[in-house]
C-alpha cells in the first residue's frame, strides 16, 4: 500500500527516519559490486546518512551551505545528499560526464563548500579546478581505489568523514534528530541545474514541499508498492532521478538498485527485472536500435519471423489506439507472437516484469512509442521539467497516445496562453532560480503561472499535447508551402526511428523547404557496412561512402512517407562527427542546442539551401582530456525526390 499519512511538515529526512523506524530490516538500497548485489536496509541507510551528516557538522558544515555530488549512481552519493538536507543545507547533484570547465561555472554559481566525488577520476576533476572555487573547503571521495598516495588536507574519504561523525555523535547525542526537527517543508531541498539548451544552466531551487507535492500527484495516477524494485541508473543531476530515488522512494518505501557501472546497465537491468522503469527518449531509441540490429543480423527464418510478428503487433496497437476491436484472427496471431517474439524481446531488454514504463524529458517519436507498446511494454509518456519538480502529467494504462502526455495530475493546473505556450501552476512549481531574480520573474508571473516555454494544446479528452519548444516552432517561408507550420522536433523524431540515424536536426523556418543534417548511428551502420563488405576506418570514413549516403537516403524516404508533403525532407548531408555535449552541441541530457548548432554550422546550413552539391565542414572537437582539435571534411549534399 502507498503511504498517504505524510507529516504536515514532511521533509525528505523525516520520511527517511519514518522508514528506518517502521521498516528497519526492509531493503532500501542495493548496489552491485564485483558481480554481487549488496543490500542496505532502511536502518542501515539512516545510519549511513546520520553518520555522514554528523561528520559534516564536525567540520563546520551548516544550514544554508551547499554540498555537490558527482559520479555514477551510488548509495553513498544519495546518502550524502540527504545528509546535507538533514543539516538544513542544500545538495546540488552534477552530471558525471561534465568537463572540468563546465563544473567551474556550476560549482562557483552554487557556492558549493563540499563536493562528494565518486572516485579518483571525479576527484581529480574537482581538484584540477579548485583554485577557481574560493568557497570550496572539502572534497570527499567515495571509492578509495587509486587515492592512497594523495596527500591533501582538503581531501577525505567518505568513511573517514563518517568516522568523524560517529565520534561527534557520541559527544552530541540527538544532534541529527534535532537538526531534522528544525527543517521546514518550504526549505530548499535540492539545487537542480537545468540542461542549458539556450545558454548557461540555471539553478532551480526546489523545496521539500515542491518535491513531495510532485510525488504525491504522481502517486495519485500511478501505482507503486513498497515491495517494488527500481533501477537507479539515470544521471543524479537529472530531476527525474531525484524525484524517483530521493522522494518517491521515501514516500513509498521501495528499494532502489544501483548498477555496477554504466557499461553494465543493460545486463543489470535484465538481471534485476525492475517493477517499473523510467528512461529518456534517447534510451528508448537505443533499445529499439539494438532490437532492430539483432533482428537484421539473425538468420533468414528468424528475421522474417520477427518482421511478420512485429508488423502484426503494430497493426493491433493501431487498432487499439483508434478504439477499434482487434479481430479474433489477429488476436490469435498476437497470442502466438507473445510466446515466440514479444515475451522473449521484453526479457532480453529486462522489462518482462515491469508493470509500466515511462518516457520523459523530451518527446518520443510516435513510431518508437508504438513499437514498444505493440510488443507488450506498458510504455507511457510523462511530462514535466526541472522547474516543475519533474512532474505535471502522465498517461493512464488504457489511454497511452504518442501524441499526448496525459491529463494534468490532481492539484496541478494547466492552461494554454494565447500564443500557444503551456502554463502550469501548483505546489510543484519551484521557488525560483538561484541568484537570478530577473530570470525567476520572467518564468513565474504575478498569478503564479510558470511559463514552460513549450508549445501545446489540450485535446477534447482533456489530455495535454506538447508540440515542441515554443521558440522552435515556426513556419515555412517562400514557395508553394509558405506559411505551413514547421515543428522540427516532430520530423527529427520520425527520422530517428531508423536504426541507422543516431541524431538529426531539421531546418525549415522561413525557408522554402525542409532540410536536415544527419549524424549516423555508428554501430548499426558499421555492422551494415561489414555485411556489405565495405571496409572503413571510423566514423568519418563511413560518412564519406556513397553506399552509406544511399542507405540514409532510403531511410529518409521511408520517413517522408509519414510526413505531410509540405514538411518532407528535401535535402540532407551526413555530418563527419556526431553531436557531442563536450562540444556544446547537445546538453548532457542529449537535447539539441539549436542556437549553438545554427551558429556553428551556419555555412553548412546555407549550402543546404543554395543548391550546392557538397560543402566543407570544419568543426572543433573536445577530447576527454580537454584538448581540442579541428575536424575537416568535404561532405556531399544529397537531394531527395519527393
Describe this structure in words.
The chain is globular. The protein has three domains: 12-219 and 232-266, 3-Layer(aba) Sandwich (Rossmann fold); 279-352 and 354-469, 3-Layer(aba) Sandwich (Rossmann fold); 474-639, ANL, C-terminal domain (GMP Synthetase, Chain A, domain 3, 2-Layer Sandwich). The chain is of the alpha/beta class. The chain has a five-stranded parallel sheet with strand order 4-3-5-6-7, sandwiched between helices. Strands 23-24-25-27-26 form a five-stranded mixed sheet, sandwiched between helices. The longest helix has 22 residues, at 300-321. Helix 2 crosses helix 3 (75-86) and helix 12 (300-321) crosses helix 14 (366-374).
Offer a concise description of the structure.
This protein is α/β, with parallel strands linked by helices and 642 residues long. The protein is built from 21 helices and 27 strands.
Spans of at least 5 consecutive residues whose pLDDT stays below 50 are: none
Query: What is the top-level CATH class of the largest domain?
Result: Alpha Beta
Distance between the termini: 56 Å
The helix content, as a percent range, equals: 25-40%
Would you count the extended β strands for me? 27
Question: Beta-sheet strand percentage?
Answer: 15-25%
The general outline is globular
CATH T-level topology of the largest domain: Rossmann fold
CATH H-level homologous superfamily name of the largest domain: ANL, N-terminal domain
Instruction: Estimate the mean pLDDT confidence.
Output: 92
CATH architecture group name of the largest domain? 3-Layer(aba) Sandwich
Question: How would you classify the helix and strand content by structural class?
Answer: alpha/beta
Count of helical regions: 21
Strand order of the largest sheet: 4-3-5-6-7
**Main pleated sheet:** 5 strands, parallel
Overall tally of structural domains: 3
Could you tell me the radius of gyration in angstroms?
25 Å
Amino acid at each position: 500500500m502507498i503511504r498517504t499519512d505524510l507529516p504536515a511538515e514532511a521533509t525528505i529526512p523525516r520520511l527517511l527516519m519514518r522508514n528506518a523506524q517502521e521498516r528497519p530490516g526492509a531493503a532500501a538500497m542495493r548496489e552491485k559490486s564485483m558481480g554481487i548485489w549488496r543490500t542496505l536496509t532502511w536502518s542501515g541507510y539512516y545510519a549511513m546518512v546520520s553518520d555522514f551528516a554528523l561528520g559534516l557538522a564536525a567540520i563546520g558544515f551548516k544550514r544554508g551551505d551547499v554540498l555537490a555530488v558527482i559520479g555514477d549512481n551510488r548509495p553513498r552519493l544519495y546518502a550524502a545528499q540527504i545528509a546535507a538536507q538533514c543539516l538544513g543545507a542544500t545538495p546540488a547533484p552534477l552530471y558525471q560526464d561534465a568537463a572540468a570547465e563546465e563544473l567551474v561555472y556550476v560549482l562557483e554559481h552554487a557556492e558549493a563548500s563540499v563536493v562528494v566525488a565518486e572516485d579518483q577520476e571525479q576527484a581529480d576533476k574537482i581538484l584540477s579546478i579548485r583554485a577557481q572555487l574560493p568557497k570550496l573547503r572539502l572534497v570527499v571521495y567515495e571509492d578509495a581505489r587509486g587515492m592512497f598516495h594523495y596527500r591533501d588536507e582538503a581531501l577525505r574519504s567518505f568513511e573517514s568523514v563518517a568516522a568523524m561523525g560517529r565520534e561527534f555523535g557520541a559527544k552530541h547525542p540527538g544532534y541529527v534528530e534535532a537538526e531534522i526537527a528544525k527543517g521546514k517543508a518550504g526549505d530548499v531541498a535540492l539545487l537542480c541545474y537545468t540542461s542549458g539548451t539556450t545558454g548557461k544552466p540555471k539553478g532551480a531551487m526546489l523545496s521539500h514541499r515542491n518535491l513531495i507535492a510532485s510525488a504525491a500527484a504522481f502517486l495519485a495516477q500511478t501505482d507503486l508498492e513498497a515491495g517494488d524494485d527500481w533501477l537507479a541508473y539515470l544521471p543524479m543531476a537529472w530531476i527525474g532521478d531525484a524525484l524517483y530515488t530521493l522522494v518517491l522512494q521515501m514516500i513509498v518505501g521501495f528499494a532502489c538498485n544501483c548498477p555496477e557501472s554504466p557499461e553494465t546497465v543493460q545486463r543489470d537491468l535484465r538481471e534485476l527485472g525492475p517493477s517499473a522503469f523510467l528512461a529518456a527518449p534517447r534510451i528508448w531509441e537505443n533499445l529499439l536500435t539494438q532490437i532492430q540490429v539483432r533482428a537484421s543480423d539473425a538468420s533468414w527464418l528468424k528475421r522474417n519471423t520477427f518482421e511478420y510478428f512485429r508488423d502484426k503487433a503494430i497493426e493491433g496497437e493501431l487498432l487499439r489506439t483508434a478504439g477499434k476491436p482487434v479481430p479474433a484472427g489477429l488476436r490469435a496471431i498476437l497470442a502466438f507472437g507473445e510466446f515466440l517474439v514479444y515475451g522473449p524481446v521484453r526479457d532480453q531488454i529486462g522489462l518482462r516484469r515491469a508493470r509500466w514504463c515511462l518516457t520523459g524529458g523530451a518527446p518520443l517519436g510516435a513510431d518508437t512509442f508504438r513499437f514498444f507498446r505493440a510488443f507488450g511494454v506498458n510504455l507511457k509518456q510523462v511530462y514535466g521539467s526541472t522547474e516543475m519538480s519533474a512532474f505535471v502529467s502522465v498517461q493512464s494504462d488504457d489511454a497511452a497516445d504518442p501524441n499526448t502526455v496525459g491529463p494534468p495530475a490532481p492539484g496541478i493546473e494547466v492552461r494554454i496562453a494565447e500564443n500557444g505556450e503551456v502554463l502550469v501552476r501548483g505546489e510543484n512549481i519551484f521557488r525560483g532560480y538561484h541568484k537570478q531574480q530577473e530570470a525567476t520573474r520572467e518564468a513565474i508571473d504575478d498569478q503564479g503561472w510558470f511559463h514552460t516555454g513549450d508549445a501545446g494544446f489540450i485535446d477534447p479528452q482533456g489530455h495535454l499535447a506538447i508540440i515542441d519548444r515554443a521558440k522552435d516552432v515556426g513556419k515555412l517561408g517562400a514557395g508553394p508551402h509558405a506559411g505551413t507550420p514547421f515543428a522540427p522536433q516532430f520530423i527529427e523524431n520520425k527520422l530517428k526511428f531508423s536504426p541507422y540515424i543516431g541524431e538529426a536536426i531539421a531546418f525549415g523556418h522561413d525557408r522554402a523547404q525542409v532540410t536536415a543534417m544527419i549524424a549516423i548511428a555508428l554501430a548499426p551502420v558499421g555492422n551494415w557496412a561489414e555485411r556489405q563488405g565495405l571496409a572503413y576506418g571510423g566514423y568519418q570514413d563511413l560518412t564519406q561512402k556513397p553506399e552509406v549516403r544511399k542507405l540514409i537516403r532510403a531511410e529518409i524516404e521511408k520517413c517522408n512517407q509519414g510526413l505531410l508533403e509540405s514538411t518532407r525532407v528535401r535535402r540532407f548531408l551526413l555530418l563527419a562527427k556526431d553531436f557531442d555535449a563536450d562540444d556544446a552541441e547537445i546538453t548532457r541530457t542529449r537535447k539539441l542546442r539549436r542556437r549553438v548548432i545554427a551558429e556553428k554550422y551556419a555555412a553548412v546550413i546555407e549550402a543546404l539551401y543554395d543548391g550546392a552539391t557538397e560543402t566543407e565542414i570544419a568543426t572543433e572537437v573536445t577530447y576527454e582530456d580537454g584538448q581540442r582539435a579541428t575536424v575537416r571534411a568535404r561532405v556531399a549534399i544529397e537531394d531527395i525526390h519527393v
